[in-house]
Amino acid sequence: MKRNANIEQKYQKKYYLLIVFFLIVIPLFIFNACSENSNVDDPNHMLNLEPLKDQFNDYFSIGNIFSPSDIGSGKISNKRITHHYNFITAENDMKPDKINPNRGSYNFSTANSMVNSARASGLQVVGHTLLWHSQIPAWQRNLSTDNTSKATTLQYMKEYITRVVTEFKGRIYSWDVLNEAFPDGNYTSDWKTSMRKENPWFNKIGHEFVYEGFKAARLADQNTILYYNDYNLNMASKAKMVHDMVRDINLQWKTDSRYDGKNLIQGIGMQSHHNTGIPASQIKASLELFKPLGVIISISELDVLSQSWNEYSSNKTLTNEGKAKAASLYGEYFSLFLEYSDIIERVTFWGLTDTKSWRARAQPLPFDGKSTAKSAYFKIINALEAHKKK
Predict the structure, then answer these.
(1) Most CB within 10 Å of its CB: which of 18, 183, 347, 350?
(2) Per-residue model confidence as pLDDT tens digits over 29-70
(3) Catalytic, out of 70, 91, 176, 301
């Protein structure tokens, strides 16, 4: 009898969990999925507005990010993505920890599904990212402190890059080969000694990892565009480090026997995770600095906090003044992007709506949680209209 009672309790528990799942979990999922389209009849809903990709077609491409939940039946199922954007970046699923969890072991299933779905939906794909100090597997992180030699670490890095880039060869428009190599300060006068100490490749190989990493990517796919990607490139000191690195790497490549007539680092991704304390003049100064390098620029991860960095980091409450300031900055930034559209090939927003942003509490995107255009969106369009009249 005791055994039967245990079995009965076991099944009662299962039934209880099923009831919770169907009565609570599924309705919450459906609510969250539908809330962003709850006002689809609103003329300012994303799906009712002229596609951004069409409006900016004469100047640069418009991109956003996606995740596995945005795909289905071999295509991108999120209509808001396909309506507005012609470039797409995997927010997390092509980062080292997802693709290469163990040395020599690769997990391409999710990334392949995402890349193939994007291409089937007519979008160009940005590969993000190959070399980084964050979101990397333990085997890469441990290289900083283990007994692996410099030569072996270099071999591991080349094998890893070659395997990943080859897997997606012909399907990736551009790769963020190296991401966020520089800290936010304490630079020397030489980029070669100013890189992040927490980057395992820099720790074990030294600055040479940059050249060798980009070269491995180039040899694996001669047709993809190779980018360096970083945030806070509105900061003059950090922009100078990136400028000098790109300049030196491209000069070194010209002396290589495998030089193919193209820059090795072909693009700089200015992430542009901004806040209300970042004036457009700072971004313009960096664009002017980068322009003589002869590389292309992408605004690769754009969002603008509706408050200053100090307000955001100390969890201050949003104000209408802050929201208005962020909207105005969106207009100023896009006026600048249009002015430099001869070197800017893409502007990618880092999130579809405020509620889907990694910095959601500061409402940093042009569309709110119901997918409705905010003041920021209209400031962007006003900037476009003003530019056309020049």
Answers:
(1) 347
(2) 444 445 566 678 999 999 999 999 999 999 999 999 999 999
(3) 301
Residue 197, number of CB atoms within 10 A of its CB: 10
Active-site residue flag, 332:
no
Q: How far apart are CA 185 and CA 168, in angstroms?
A: 35
Whether 230 is catalytic is yes
Q: Would you list the DSSP string of 95-158?
A: SHHHH-SBTTB---HHHHHHHHHHHHTT-EEEEEEEE-SSS--HHHHGGGTSS--HHHHHHHHH
Which among 36, 70, 221, 230 is annotated as catalytic?
A: 230
Rounded to the nearest 10°, the torsion over CA 189, 195, 198, 199 is -160
Exactly one of 36, 91, 180, 345 is catalytic; name it. 180
Tens-digit pLDDT profile for the chain (390 aa)?
444 444 445 445 555 555 544 555 455 444 444 556 667 899 999 999 999 999 999 999 999 999 999 999 999 999 999 999 999 999 999 999 999 999 999 999 999 999 999 999 999 999 999 999 999 999 999 999 999 999 999 999 999 999 999 999 999 999 999 999 999 888 888 999 999 999 999 999 999 999 999 999 999 999 999 999 999 999 999 999 999 999 999 999 999 999 999 999 999 999 999 999 999 999 999 999 999 999 999 999 999 999 999 999 999 999 999 999 999 999 999 999 999 999 999 999 999 999 999 999 999 999 999 999 999 999 999 999 999 999
The whole-angstrom distance between residue 153's C-alpha and the CA centroid of its chain comes to 26
CATH no. for 42-388: 3.20.20.80
Our measurement of the distance from residue 312's CA atom to the centroid of its chain's CA atoms, rounded to an integer in Å, reads: 21
Which residues neighbour 214 within 8 Å (Cβ) at sequence distance 6 or greater? 177, 178, 226, 249, 253, 264, 265
| Measured distance CA(89)–CA(81) in Å, rounded | 11
**DSSP 3-state of 209:** helix
- The domain spans of the chain are 1-35, 42-388
Contacts of 348 (CB under 8 A, 6+ apart): 62, 63, 64, 65, 87, 89, 126, 298, 299, 300, 301, 302
